[in-house]
Amino acid sequence: MISLAGRDILHGWGKFVFTGMGLGLLFGVTLVMAGVYRGMVADGEALLANTGADLWVVQRDTLGPYAEPSSLPGDTWRSVRLVPGVAEAAGATYSTMQLRQGRREVRAMLVGLAPGEPGRTPGWPPQLVAGRQLTRGHYEAVADLATGFRLGEAITLRGERYTVVGLTRRMVSASGDPMVFVPLKDAQAAQFRADGDAIRRGRRAAEADPAQNRPGNPAALQAALAAQGDGDTVNAVLVRLAPGADPDAAAESIRRWQRLTVYTREQMQDILVGKLIATSARQIGLFLVFLAAVCAAIVAFIIYTLTMDKIREIAVLKLLGTKNRSIAGMILQQALALGSIGFVVGTISASFSAPIFPKYVLVLPTDIATGLAAVLGLCTLASVAAIRAALAVDPAEAIGG
Fold first, then answer.
1. CA angle (359 as vertex; 355, 363 as ends), nearest 5
2. What is the pLDDT at residue 10?
3. Positive or negative CA dihedral for 251, 257, 259, 260?
4. What letter would DSSP give residue 242?
5. Contact 98, 105 (CB under 8 A)
6. CA dihedral in degrees (322, 323, 327, 330; nearest 10)?
7. pTM of the model
8. Best CA proximity match to 303, nearest among 393, 398, 375, 389
């Protein structure tokens, strides 16, 4: 029956192969969807690893700085640095903005770096692929390769021009946006400081209504902040612990004495994966379920059609005494052959198409192995209807007209 299945495939090999290729493209889409989810998780893990931080100190009762807004006084790092077990502490800002380079705009996460150096101060990119790290206090930038910026180019941010002095790789936000690093003061000015028009409007509003100038009036406080420009603010304080220090103990000490929210690396990873990308993960999961159902339905229809096309030949086999087990095996082999062709085509198409996607697509060997097992399982289930139809054929049909 193995040779019979092979001969049947060779008899209509063109139709069989092209059907397998079309099915393979559908399998490739399924594999890419799984790779998109893997890429989102990898982006979150890369974000945490690249900061070099062991603890994240954020505004009380927030999930900052990545999942929710968070604001802290710019000097918070000083008190955090005094906590036992803390080796380094540095303020940092994170904000997603549109950067311009000539006529081109790039959406990126702008990261403000406190004065320091890579490997010692948390938040700095650990390594560069070209150029140098930030050395000046203003108007320099280190950009990820995904932005498309090149060394020496000038980019525009909130009306100010920055020169790209270094390039990184795989420095991205949890949503996959490439990062651009600038000095902390510049990032604070871009994110928090009000522009001249806002300051003037705040002053005029305060002067127009003397009642708002009473001490303790919230409107007066807001106007004062707008007038001075709240630039000494950070989104988080990144903490690097001393060797051997207990992260939980240090975090608890900061919570108790500083009355701030502190997250360890494990807790921050849970926030990124369990909350920030949870909705996207569920959506991708539903797509995978639907695609699997569509693949199974297509394979079932194809195998059933191929079986019905040779129903007379199956009746002849039965008349010659062929066992039902052999006939079922022939149909199952054809279904598995069709799935194997589709899987090979799908894997190749996914490998070549993954770099085209704007988001990071990560396809692991374990995903490929799982996909192969799923494809063979779906093909086995899809052949059930065709096998039942073949086994129900009356051998007398081989004699009748």
1. 60
2. 59
3. negative
4. P
5. yes
6. -90
7. 0.77
8. 389
**What are 98-104's contacts with CB under 8 Å, separation 24+?**
99/147, 99/155, 99/156, 99/157, 99/180, 100/155, 100/156, 100/157, 101/148, 101/149, 101/153, 101/154, 101/155, 101/156, 104/148
Q: Which amino acid is at 54?
A: D
**Residue 180 contacts residue 154 (beta carbons within 8 Å):** no
Tokens 């090999």 map to which residue?
13
DSSP result, 232-259: SEESEEEEEEPTT--HHHHHHHHHHHH-
Cα torsion angle, 222, 225, 231, 235, sign = negative
Q: Bin 88: left if φ > 0, else alpha if -120 < ψ < 50, else beta.
A: beta
Contact 378, 27 (CB under 8 A): no
Cα angle value 211/213/215 (rounded, 5°): 110
Span 194-221, pLDDT tens digits: 555 555 665 666 566 655 555 545 444 4
Type of residue numbered 44: G
Q: How far apart are the C-alpha atoms of 145 and 65, rounded to whole Å?
A: 23
**With a cut of 70, which residues of the chain have pLDDT below it?**
1-14, 193-231, 397-401
DSSP 140-181: EEEEEGGG---TT-EEEETTEEEEEEEEESS-B-TTSPBEEE
At residue 228, the pLDDT reads 43
Q: How far apart are CA 247 and CA 54, in angstroms?
A: 7
Tokens describing residue 280: 């996207």
The per-residue pLDDT for 140 is: 94
pLDDT at position 202 is 56
Q: What angle do CA 48, 141, 104 make, to 5 degrees?
A: 100
